[in-house]
Protein 1
Amino acid sequence: MAKIKVTKNGPYLVSGSLPINEEKIEYDDFGVPRKTVVTKKYPQSESAALCRCGHSQNKPFCDGTHAKINFDGTETADVDEKYENEAEIINGPDLDLKDVPHLCAGLGFCHRGEGTWTSTENSDDPESKKVAVESACACAAGRLTAVDKKTGKNIEPKLEPSIGVLENGPLLVKGGIPVESAGGKTYEVRNRCTLCRCGESENKPFCDGSHQY
């Protein structure tokens, strides 16, 4: 079974022949992040160890540096947290928006147009609705989720299981890949989440945008 195992003060152990790709952000005409695109595909293998401390000389792969620098990779995220229980609801005429702020990875996909929140509040306008859905679905961390007002169902992009290594950013975990803590418990399986690879997040193993600073 494909999964990502967080090791104690060490790397992420990936199993199950998951595709691992380098990705970069593609911007719109106003310089706002729009989506990510694959720039390189690594040879697929049954297993891999991905750097979590941010100091490997063989990124994105681990080279053992975490042991030399005494990396403290203590997990601080709540392994029992459920997205639906934590989400704030922003109401709009045609869409609602679920928002869990502390999951933010600071990637900026929500800044398109009026911003995902205002676009949701103006979702009776077709263009605003389109932008709200697209920008919420582009939120790689899964902080934001657009909700169809009529059906009450979450609007999620269809993502094949894979790991994106974002240029100067986190690991993009897509398609419902289980992430297991060093203690053996599995975090809530989600379609989209981001894992820290700079070693500085205050919400380990997840990214909190600390790589930007």
Protein 2
Amino acid sequence: MARIAGVNISVNKHIVMGLQDIHGIGPTRAKNICNTVKLEPSKKIKDLTEAELESVRSEVLKYTIEGDLRREISMNIKRKMDLGCNVGIRHRRGLPVRGQRTRTNARTRKGKPKPVRG
């Protein structure tokens, strides 16, 4: 297991796929990291030298990732809820935020259907 940014990454994965295990790094950012460090994206993590791993670690630390990113996202949601804007109200009520319909679907956000009392 290689440890990058506090996340254990399997040594059998390619660098690009392994970097995507880190919260906040997707396919594009993983490829950019490989390009700046001048590594082949298809190279496996077990084939990296310690110096290459260290350069990948230093490049990853330039981005907002893992705990800091999660904290930033939750603070943004809390800020919108405190403001009382439409997005904040939708978060508070547990409804879809981005304009999706709620008459049907939306079960993921709304939870189990409640029985109708008549």
Protein 3
Amino acid sequence: MASRPPPPSTGWSAGIGAYVKAAFLYRWNLLLFAGAAGLAALSGQADALLPIVGGLEIAYLTSLVALPRFRIAIDAREAARGRAAAATGDPAAQQSLERIIEALPAASLQRFSTLRQRCFEMREIASGVRGQTSGAGDAADSIRTPALDRLLFLFLKLLMSQDGLNRFLRSTSEQQLVKRRDDVTARLAAAQTTNDERVVRSLQDSVADAELRLDNYRKSMKDAEFVTIELDRIETKIQALTEMAVSRQDPDALSNQVTAAAESMHQTENAVNQLQHLTGLADQIADPPAILEADLGRVMLRGR
């Protein structure tokens, strides 16, 4: 198994060695193979029977490894193990992610925790309720894709942006800023009837600053509205994608849909990047961490 997570491309493969190992170590195969080999050895005709047992085992391994669905399942499993190793093997990434989550207000943390838990619940349903269906495990593994981590990380950044915008908007009000601008404008009009150019220039600069503050406040109001709408949209999208794991038979199609949804978020990501002065994320985590596989038990307790 690789020591780091594989790239999220659809062409990544765990390798023939991983496929053969998984097929051989399947518990029913081990039981039957050991039993057949043991009986052949005790039969007194081991020289004749053991090659037959070996040939049957090779035929079984070859036929199972040739199945595309089996290879997809092993690819997903190995990818999940790689992401888990990355999440637990990089203390800096783990600590940075914890700091981001700890900075969230309680209501935002609860919302993020609920959405993340929803992903786990859908994965368990896909693995358990449909466990007897071929490919159900593959569908469950599709809820571990890096693309879904990217969506969750974007949701987390939007929560942080929302908190920063709300704190800024609470620090003043549009009415206060309008009153400040009007007062300074009135003082400027009165000063212009005098011959004191210094006062006029000073008040003109104050009017420009008051207008700038008002424009910035109104822009922040629009940003806050956009962030609220995007949070609802991405939350619904993540819920829909994870719920599809329960009913979808084709795990590859599900994984492609998750990836396509993540790729469609460029506009939102650009908007969030423009709000980094409110979140400080630029100095913490550049790439989406393995949020689903990360150990966040301690920090998540605060949101419950």
